[in-house]
Automatic annotation (TrEMBL):
Protein name, entry field: C-C motif chemokine
Chemokine interleukin-8-like domain segment(s): 24-82
UniProt keyword terms in alphabetical order: Chemotaxis, Cytokine, Disulfide bond, Secreted, Signal
Family of the protein in this entry: Belongs to the intercrine beta (chemokine CC) family.
Compartment list: Secreted
Signal peptide: 1-18
Taxonomy of the source species: Eukaryota, Metazoa, Chordata, Craniata, Vertebrata
Matches recorded under InterPro entries: Chemokine_b/g/d (IPR039809), Chemokine_CC_CS (IPR000827), Chemokine_IL8-like_dom (IPR001811), Interleukin_8-like_sf (IPR036048)
Record GO terms (molecular function): CCR chemokine receptor binding; chemokine activity
Source organism, top-level taxon: Eukaryota
GO cellular-component term (any): extracellular space
Alphabetical GO biological process terms: antimicrobial humoral immune response mediated by antimicrobial peptide; chemokine-mediated signaling pathway; eosinophil chemotaxis; inflammatory response; positive regulation of cell migration
Length: 87
């Protein structure tokens, strides 16, 4: 039950916005409050500058999207690690 409610929460925090050209923009309206395990994270992207709130969206190995606050130290560390791994 815990994982189900956690998954539902993550699902509700990401909104996909369609633009006229057919491009999809992803926005976050809330972020996780706890550090997620790095072993679950596959990659990341930043939200569009058209979104009301700046965020980092981590994609998990299971295909979920998790919004995180880019000013948190652990988020910055994950980004740095993922950038190094993609080189």
């Amino acid at each position: 039950f815990k994982w189900f409610s956690l998954a539902l929460y993550f699902h509700l925090t990401v909104l996909y916005l369609a633009e006229p050209a057919g491009n999809m923009r992803v926005c976050c309206f809330s972020s996780v409050t706890r550090k997620i395990p790095l072993s679950l994270v596959k990659n990341y992207e930043r939200t569009s500058d058209k979104c009301p709130q700046e965020a980092v969206i981590f994609q998990t190995r299971s295909g979920r999207s998790i919004c995180a606050n880019p000013s948190q130290a652990w988020v910055q560390q994950y980004i740095e690690y993922l950038d190094q791994m993609s080189k």
